[in-house]
Write a structure and sequence with these properties.
Two copies of one chain form a homodimer. The first copy, chain A, is an alpha/beta fold and 226 residues long. Helix content of chain A is 35%, strand content 29%. In chain A, the strands form two sheets. A six-stranded mixed beta sheet of chain A has the order 6-7-8-3-9-10, sandwiched between helices. In chain A, helix 3 crosses helix 4 and helix 3 runs parallel beside helix 5. The radius of gyration of chain A is 17 Å and the shape is globular. The structure holds adenosine-5'-triphosphate (2 copies) and magnesium ion (2 copies). One adenosine-5'-triphosphate sits at the interface of chains A and B.
C-alpha cells in the first residue's frame, strides 16, 4: 500500500546540512499496524510527513497504492491527503477558533459532507474517545491529553485507509492510551485500515505487527510478530 | 516552600461549570522531588499553573516561602515567576522567531543578565541536555523531543529554586528521558532545588521522593519513598 525507496531528506541551515533521513526503504501492506521507534531527533516525524505526502524527500521515491507520488499533480495529492490519509500530528495542530467538535468536523468539509452529517459524526468520534462532554470546548479550554485525543478523532473523520499517528499517546495516562490503541487496533483488524504509529512507549509498540527502529535517519532494526 | 490550602478551580463555559480542582491541599518542602500523576483531564496542569503563580484559584490560598500570594502585588508575583520558578510547559510554548539558544536566553533578559553571559549560559544548558549542535535551529526546525528539551533548558535559565515540569518527557525516548530526569535529580540532590514533575510515566515517578495521584480534581493517593 505504501512503498518508500531510498528516501533521503536533508535540510540546509546556513552552512550546515542536517541529514534527517539517509536512505530509508520501507514497504507497508494494507491492514498492517507498524510501530516506528527511535531516539529523539532520529527522523521519525520527518519519515511520517513524507509517507503522508505532506513533505517531499530530497532523494528517493514514494508510492501510494502503486502510484508514484512525484508523478501526481497537486490536486491528486490533495485528494490522497484529504481522503486516504488521516494524520495525527505530534503537536496536535488544532484550530484555536474552533471547538473540539468543529476541529473534528473540519476535514469533512473538504470532502463535501453535509453539515448535519459532519456534526453527528464528529460528536460520535469524540464520544468513542471519551470526550463527548468536551465537544464544545476550544483547544485552550482542554487539557494536553484532551487536545491530543481531539486530534486523533480528527484523523479518523474521513474514514481514511491509512492512519499516521505521530506519538498519539505521549500526553496520555496508560488507560486513555490503551483506549486509543484499542481503537486503532480495531480499525486495523475489523476495517482493514493501515496504521503507522510513531511511539517511544513499548506498551504501544506491543499493539503492532511490525516494529521498525530508526537511528540517525536510518532503519537499524525491524522486528515482526508471529 | 510551597503550600496550597483548599484549592478549588472552576471554569465557566456557557451554562456548564467545569470543576478542574476540588479542594486540594498540598505542602512541598525545599529540595523535594514530587511527582504528580493522574488521568488525562484530572487537573494536573491546572494545579501546576496555580503552584507557579500563572493562574489564581477560584477558592483557597497559595503560599510561596510562607508568603500568601494573594497579598502580593503583580510586580512581586512577576519576580517570583521570573526568578524563583522555572516552568516547563506541556506544550513547550517556545518563541517561533528565536533560535533554541535565543529561547533559552530569554528569561535571563528579564533578570538583566549581560548578553555575553546569557549567550554562554544558554549554550551550556543546551549542551547539558544534548542539544549543543541544535542551538541555532528555530523551533520549526527541531523535532518534538528537541523542542521539549529546549523548553526544559529554558526553565533552568535563571537557576530557579523551584522547577515545575509538566510532562517533560512525554515526547522523549527512554534514554533522553533518563538524561532529563538525572539532570533534575542532580539539581535537587546537589543544589537543593525543589522539583515538581507531572508525568504519566512510572519510570519518571520512580525518581520522586513523593508521588501524588489526582483524579477528577482531587488528591486520591499520596505515596512516600523511604
Ligand atoms: N479554560 C478552560 N475552560 C474550561 N475547562 C477547562 C479549561 N482548561 C482546562 N479545562 C478542563 O479542566 C480539566 C483539567 O484540565 P488539566 O489541563 O488540568 O488536565 P490534566 O490533568 O493536565 O490533563 P492531561 O494529562 O491531559 O494534560 C480538563 O477536563 C479540561 O477540559
Ligand atoms: N526544518 C528543519 N531544518 C533543519 N533541521 C531540521 C528541520 N526539521 C527537523 N530537523 C532536524 O531533523 C532531525 C529529525 O527530526 P524529526 O522531527 O524527524 O525527529 P523525530 O525522530 O521525530 O524526533 P522526536 O522523537 O524528538 O519527535 C532532528 O534532529 C531535527 O533537528
Ligand atoms: Mg517527532
Ligand atoms: Mg496537562
Amino acid at each position: 500500500l505504501v512503498k518508500l525507496r531510498n528516501i533521503t531528506k536533508e535540510y540546509q541551515l546556513g552552512k550546515t546540512v542536517v541529514h534527517a533521513l539517509r536512505g530509508v526503504d520501507l514497504a507497508i501492506d494494507a491492514g498492517e499496524i507498524v510501530a516506528i521507534m527511535g531516539p529523539s531527533g532520529s527522523g521519525k516525524s520527518t519519515l511520517m510527513h513524507i509517507i503522508g505526502c505532506l513533505d517531499m524527500p530530497s532523494v528517493g521515491e514514494v508510492e501510494i497504492e502503486n502510484m508514484p507520488t512525484d508523478s501526481l499533480r497537486e490536486r491528486q495529492l490533495a485528494t490522497i491527503r484529504g481522503r486516504k490519509i488521516g494524520f495525527v500530528f505530534q503537536t496536535f495542530n488544532l484550530v484555536a477558533s474552533l471547538t473540539a467538535q468543529g476541529n473534528v468536523a473540519l476535514p469533512m468539509i473538504f470532502q463535501k459532507i453535509k453539515r448535519t452529517q459532519r456534526t453527528q459524526r464528529a460528536a460520535e468520534l469524540l464520544e468513542k474517545i471519551g470526550l463527548g462532554d468536551r465537544k464544545n470546548h476550544h483547544p485552550n479550554e482542554l487539557s494536553g491529553g484532551e487536545r491530543q485525543r481531539v486530534s486523533i478523532a480528527r484523523a479518523m473523520a474521513n474514514d481514511p485507509d491509512i492512519i499516521l499517528a505521530d506519538e498519539p499517546t505521549g500526553n496520555l495516562d496508560s488507560e486513555s492510551g490503551a483506549t486509543v490503541m484499542r481503537t486503532l487496533r480495531r480499525l486495523s483488524d475489523e476495517e482493514g485500515k493501515t496504521v503507522i504509529v510513531v511511539t517511544h512507549n513499548p506498551e504501544v509498540a506491543a499493539y503492532a505487527d511490525r516494529v521498525i527502529t530508526l537511528r540517525d535517519g536510518k532503519i537499524i532494526k525491524e522486528e515482526r510478530r508471529d
